[in-house]
Amino acid sequence: MGWADPKEDGVRRYAPSGELIGEIHLPETCANLCFGGKKKNRLFMAASTSVYPVYVETVGALVPQYGRSAGWISGDTM
Prior knowledge:
Elements: E1 10-14, E2 20-25, E3 30-36, E4 42-47, E5 51-55
Antiparallel strand pairs: 1-2, 3-4, 4-5
């Protein structure tokens, strides 16, 4: 966040209703984030000069797998 006040730097989580349900405060503005790790339960937050990792109690979005097991055959185009 960090647009109005340095105390607002970090990541916020909202419920579908719009209610704020969680915050992770960072010492600088967060520009982007993604889930990673073997279990997809590690949140990486890319800030102005650093990357901040934190383990979370949820699993991030899974990446679709392409290949024979997913119905894609070598040589097929998307």
